[in-house]
Here is the input.
Amino acid sequence: MSFVIFVLLATIIYMIYVRYYPIKGIPCMDMNQLSKVTKKVKLDIRDYNTSAKNTVTDSVLLPIAYLRRHHNEIPSKQIYLIASDKIERNLAARMLKQKGFQIMGYTITSCDCEKRSKRVA
Here is the structure.
């Protein structure tokens, strides 16, 4: 009985880790900084309904629900993520790193990265 509880607890802890613990070393970028990026692929992982309201030019639209099946349609291995929240960012970053992609940065559409970077500096 205690083994079953241990396995169940370990599974729950792993699921929480994957969803909520961020991957270190991926810088947050402001939308203005992201618009200056030209050489790398901008991957928009937001839902179709959300991304249609606030489009990002020159981005590849591939919602996170379709990422596992269609990751080979991404044209480059070095990408910038555009997400709607931190959970989406964490799940996509882990999944793409497992597939061999290098994540150069990310932006969250409701993020205040510019304000945070001024506070740190």
Notes: The first strand starts at residue 41 and ends at 44. Residues 2-20 form the longest helix (19 residues). Strands lie at 41-44, 59-61, 78-83, 102-108.
